[in-house]
Amino acid sequence: MPTILSHAAVPLALGLGLGARVVSRRLLVAGIIASVLPDFDVLAFHFHVAYSDALGHRGISHSIVFAILVALVTLLLASRLNTTRKTAFLFVAICAVSHGVLDMFTNGGLGVALLWPWSTERFFAPWQVIEVSPLGIQRVFSQRGIAVLVSELLWVWLPATITCAVLSLMRVFVSRTLEKRKSVDKQLRER
After folding, report:
1. Which stretches of the chain are DSSP H helices?
2. φ, ψ dihedrals at 112, nearest 5°
3. How far apart are CA 55 and CA 51, in angstroms?
4. Hey, which residues does 106 pair with through a beta bridge?
5. Which residue range(s) make up the domain with 44?
6. 88-94 average pLDDT score
7. Cβ neighbours of residue 34 under 8 Å, at least 6 residues apart?
8. Is pLDDT of 181 > 90?
């Protein structure tokens, strides 16, 4: 898995790129929580649940179904998140499912049960370019952990930053185009 810090890259990139008019600050926080929530499945280790079990690490909590369930809860809280129900659902669903997708690009573990309950198979992406993070915060700051962070800078944060920049530029372009259109419409009406 990427570190818990890097799972937040997707909601940050999308939320900041789309802007506060689309993704409120509260919705952005909900998206960040949704993006890290699946890794709370590591608590199953304390209850002696096997890694390979459906309730184990990268199991049910990393599935598309889990992401949809988290998004459905958020849908109910849309007004508190200062957004529409549709926006709350879509944003949080994307953020939650991004967790499993990022984990599929790591080079360790047992894969991700993305299609649970239809399949218990665990999947990896064709390219496993992200160094798998060691479990435990102390290990993240070891020499191996530093290698993981460097890998995440390249394979998670750089693409997220580019995505954020492209979305921001598109938002500015659309806004300016709409302003120009309104100006032209106003001039035509005044004639």
Report:
1. 4-7, 9-18, 25-36, 64-76, 85-104, 137-140, 143-152, 158-190
2. -125, 135
3. 8
4. 130
5. 4-190
6. 98
7. 11, 67, 70, 71, 74, 92, 95, 96, 99
8. no
Predicted pLDDT of residue 22: 96
Number of domains in the chain: 1
Q: Token digits for 191?
A: 């004639």
* The pair of three-digit structure tokens given for residue 162, joined into one six-digit string: 């580019």
Query: How many angstroms separate the CA atoms of 19 and 190, rounded?
Result: 33
Residues 6+ apart with CB under 8 A from 176: none
Q: What are phi and psi of 113, to 5 degrees?
A: -85, 60
Span of 134-138, 145-149, 183-187 with lowest mean pLDDT = 134-138
First to last CA, the chain: 62
Distance between CA atoms of 3 and 140, rounded to whole angstroms? Answer: 8
pLDDT at 42 over 70: yes
